[in-house]
Amino acid sequence: MAKFTLPLWVGIFDDPDSLLEGAGQAKEKGFEDLDAFTPYPVHGLEKALGLKRSWVPYVTLICGLSGATLGYLFMLWTSAIDWPLNIGGKPFHSWPAFVPITFEMGILLGGVSTFIALLVATNLPRFKPFVIDPQLTNNRFALVIPEKQDKVRDDIERFLKGAGAVEIKKITG
Fold first, then answer.
1. How many domains does the chain have?
2. Is residue 3 part of a domain?
3. Can you give the pTM of this predicted structure?
4. H-type alpha helices, the chain
5. In a domain? residue 78
């Protein structure tokens, strides 16, 4: 997700194909920090917008493995080193008994870290949300282009009209 710099130009499209074409053309024209809003997933939109692969799965993997390792080491330390109890003649380091807690600790830390990483990656929560178009959650699609110094108002507006936008809006804040 792009970090928005105001003002923003929004082109509203009626169908996902014209949005995909418009996003691809915008990337070719040199527009940067593009974003799109759709009522459902549109396959190929990430590539058309030039978005990179998310870093969230790597955070999940690292934290999940760390949680499993810490859970296993904690059980090993408590049952074999700190407070060894001979229960039914079982060994102090009984790895089959450690498997459920190891698994659960991996899932717990992986899940919590994924939630936090998603909040960070998507800049949520937004305390001052803006509504581009109420129909975006129903049947319309939006391509968002931030206005920058090198791309002036007329260039963006002309481009969005040529790309097939049925409506063009400017969001200033």
1. 2
2. no
3. 0.75
4. 16-29, 45-49, 56-76, 95-121, 153-162
5. yes
Determine the structural domain holding residue 63 and report its residue range.
56-121
Q: How far is CA 37 from CA 12, 46, 93, 145, in A?
A: 9, 12, 53, 12
Q: Scanning the structure block, which residue is given the tokens 């053309």? A: 25
Q: What tens digit of pLDDT does each residue of 100-153 get?
A: 999 999 999 999 999 999 999 988 887 776 667 787 888 899 999 988 866 677
Residue indicated by tokens 């995909």? 20
Please check whether residue 8 is in contact with residue 143, taking contact to mean a CB–CB distance below 8 angstroms.
no
Q: Is 2 exposed, middle or buried (0-12, 13-18, 19+ CB in 10 A)?
A: middle
3-class DSSP assignment, residue 43: coil
Q: How many residues are recorded in the chain?
A: 173
Per-residue model confidence as pLDDT tens digits over 77-97: 999 999 888 888 888 998 998
Q: Which has the closest alpha carbon to 170: 132, 139, 117?
A: 132
Q: Which two tokens stand for residue 37?
A: 């809003």
- Residue 13's SS3 state is strand
